[in-house]
Amino acid sequence: MNVLYLPGGGSSRANYPYDKILRKVQRRGHKTTFCPITWRGTNIHDWVEEVRPTYRQHDPAQTILVGFSFGAMTALLLTAECPPAGLILCSLSPYFAEDLPFIPARWVRRLNPRRRAAFEKLHFSDYGTQIACPTRLVTASLETEWLQQRTRAVRDSIPGAHILIAQGVGHEPAAWPYVQTLDKTFDSLRTEVPLA
């Protein structure tokens, strides 16, 4: 199985230990592809455009998309276009139009104007009903309440979706409890996706 990993906002392999996560997935026998995203001055539609060519190089029926934070939002949009064998949304960012009125105003003010305008028009309800593949959501026990609410809303909107929680950590995908929880997510998917 091919596993495409989409990183969180502002991060890359150069400034965050994503290789630790990818090695754990590789030990399961999966091929991994890290999908770098250009963050500066861009918005979610740019991220989808940037990752789409890499995704198209793989057979969707043999691919699992894994995204963290803004990368999870991007993976969700790609899945709505063309469903992979499985989708793992890690710490899905609460920046859909439905979320913006409820998250702290300082979070919204920090967004560049293009990104904010895109999020204001990005309704989860336009995409959630199009997700037609086995879906798992990974979150952490110390994540913000807004992120937890978004995670529960997605679970409730996608038939068969399940949440797995990394205990004792926050928005840190390379923290060992988070890595272990992501690893268990592949076991959870095994009942619905024929993992090699």
Tell me about this structure.
This protein is an alpha/beta fold and 196 residues long. It has one domain (2-189): Alpha/Beta hydrolase fold, catalytic domain (Rossmann fold), CATH 3.40.50. It has helices at 18-26, 44-56, 70-81, 105-109, 113-120, 124-128, 145-157, 176-189, and strands spanning 2-6, 31-34, 63-68, 86-90, 135-140, 162-166. The radius of gyration is 15 Å and the shape is globular.
Mean pLDDT across the residues is 95
H/E element order: EHEHEHEHHHEHEH
Looking at the structure, the CATH topology is Rossmann fold
Main pleated-sheet profile: 6 strands, parallel
Look at the structure and give the CATH class.
Alpha Beta
Helix content, binned percent: 40-55%
Radius of gyration: 15 Å
CATH superfamily: Alpha/Beta hydrolase fold, catalytic domain
Number of helices: 8
Shape: globular
Q: How many domains in all?
A: 1
Describe this structure in a few short sentences:
The protein is of the alpha/beta class and 196 residues long. The protein is built from eight helices and six strands. It has one domain (2-189): Rossmann fold (3-Layer(aba) Sandwich), CATH 3.40.50.1820.
